[in-house]
Amino acid sequence: MISFPLVKTIEGIFDPIQNDIDELNDRLINRISPDSHSLCSILQGIFEAGGKRLRPAISFLLFRALRFAGREELYSDSEDKLFLVTEIAELIHTASLVHDDIIDNSLIRRGAPTTNSKWDNAITVISGDFMFARAAVNLAKVNINKVVEIFAVVLENLCSGEIRQVEQKYNVDTTWDYYYLKTYNKTASLFEACAESVTELFDLSDKEKKAIVTYGCNLGMAFQIIDDILDFTSDEETLGKPAGADIKEGQINIPLLLAFEDLKLKDPEKLAYIKSRIRNIPTEDSPITISTTIKEALKICNETGAIDKSYSKAIDYVKDAVTGISFLPESSYKEALVKLAEFVIKRKN
User: Fold this and answer.
1) At residue 2, does pLDDT exceed 60?
2) What gap in Å lies between CA 278 and CA 234, rounded to an integer?
3) How far is residue 54's CA from residue 46's CA, in Å, rounded to a whole number?
């Protein structure tokens, strides 16, 4: 049985790597200087707004934990490569959010106006494209073929996941295979890449590499499941975006899938009813009716225990992630990796 310390906020978890996080923030805010004044202002505004920096933190903590363990580094400039990798990860993540907000016509993220709500879509798209381009430049500077491949696959996964998500909007007959693949492509693959890229900087056994990669992937899967849950259980002030946004945008996430499974056996009529309501959201003119549909979906998820079942799945992923890195010696970095896993399932936004 793995026990986790109670961690509900990110505060304190990054203490062992705070200097690394500060350096990364400086790079993102002050050292990305496109020629366009507008584009420069947009990028600085985006990165100054903050963000959890979870993905870079995975790389920093794993790198420091492996160095503490005395594992042989394969490159004399491995630390320089580490910072390039973390910048790549945050650039890709942020660019994907910028594009997602345009696709979803989202006006609020992290409690603040989105870029597309302040600028027109053309320049907002270009700002996302620029971040992807800068990530590609950094990949060339890393100059490790496997790391280039890792992040190239992530970019492919993000695009594939986004396209499939658009295709599957309001599909109330979504399958589990689709859900898990979408979750991996859109979220877990980047978490996984942040872990896997670090393994290319050290001389590790195949077993150790697999354990570290699994840590990143499982953390990403758990993170997305919690995101799905928060869409039902949190409020706009806490979540930083309107509650029920996923349902309104036609995304059938894990609480709904679990609720549908339960209703299929216990109350097929209610299942048909709620599916019909969700399917009809795009053609519904009344905001009140849409709001009622969302509330009814939440009620059904609570009645069927779908929220608790979703949490259980997230916890299983996190336990497997933490078990995998048990080979690392005890250190403040390993402790932070465990706390980070705990934060993923306890977070409120």
Assistant:
1) no
2) 20
3) 16
Beta bridge pairs of residue 109: 112
Measured from the Cβ of residue 258, the count of other Cβ atoms closer than 10 Å reads: 21
What is this structure's pTM? 0.91
Phi, psi of 170 (to 5 degrees): 60, 20
How do residues 242-261 score in pLDDT, each as one tens digit?
667 889 989 999 999 999 99
CA distance 57 to 183: 20
**Residues 173/117, Cβ–Cβ less than 8 Å:** no
Domains of the chain: 15-344 (1.10.600.10)
Radius of gyration, CA atoms only, the chain? 21
Amino acid present at 215: Y
SS3 174: coil
Nearest CA-CA partner of 13 in 56, 66, 67: 56
Report H helices in the chain: 18-30, 37-48, 54-68, 78-104, 115-118, 121-142, 145-167, 176-183, 189-199, 206-233, 236-239, 245-248, 254-266, 268-279, 287-303, 306-324, 332-346
202's tokens: 């050290």
pLDDT in tens, 157-166: 999 998 988 8
What CA–CA distance (Å, rounded) separates 326 from 330?
Answer: 9
What is the rounded CA–CA span in Å between residue 110 and residue 105? 15
- Could you give the count of Cα atoms lying within 13 Å of 103 in the half-sphere of its Cβ? 18
At 155-211, the pLDDT tens digits run: 999 999 989 888 999 999 999 999 999 999 999 999 999 999 999 999 999 999 999
Q: Which of 78, 256, 310, 93 is nearest to 187 (CA)?
A: 93
